[in-house]
Amino acid sequence: MKKWTTPLMLALPLALTGCTAAPSIPVAFGSPTYVHRLTYDTLYSAKPFTEATLYYYDNGTYKIISPGEEHYGVYVVKGDFDAPRYAITYISLPSTDWYGNVALHELLFDAGSGKFGQQALLPSDQYIPPQDGQFVLERNSIDDPRPLRWPAN
User: Fold this and answer.
1) How far are the Cα atoms of 1, 41, 84, 104, 112 from residue 91, in angstroms, in the given order?
2) What are the protein's UniProt keywords (predicted)?
3) pLDDT-derived band at 6, boundaries 50, 70, 90
4) What is the pTM of this model?
5) pLDDT at 131 over 60
6) Class of domain 31-139 as given by CATH
7) What gap in Å lies between CA 65 and CA 59, rounded to an integer?
8) Higher confidence at residue 67 or residue 22?
């Protein structure tokens, strides 16, 4: 399996260093595993996007795209993607999608019903109402997710 050694540079700004460029660290994607295609029934008012697609990699990295989002993060699965029920906790890397900060999402998936529930938490919004919707799980064959964008209408 091909490993990408520098597909994404995570900028770690240090305001007091006087540096002109923010220090960064390389974050490598693992091998592709799964894709979740989400369709939301209950939306978060600050992110009213009905659809989103998550691309997962075996080292705990992911990329998400939607009509209004595109960012990277890390995840941990409680259970397994092929279990009847499983949960995934996500922490996004700092991005403009989340006002230059991180976001925490916890999703519970029920394969039998094809439904998911979601709870999100932002440093700037600690009281996001629960969200939910339907999902489809597919195999991921995308080695390098960097070029992926939501299709323009």
Assistant:
1) 25, 22, 23, 5, 26
2) Signal
3) very low
4) 0.87
5) yes
6) mainly beta
7) 19
8) 67
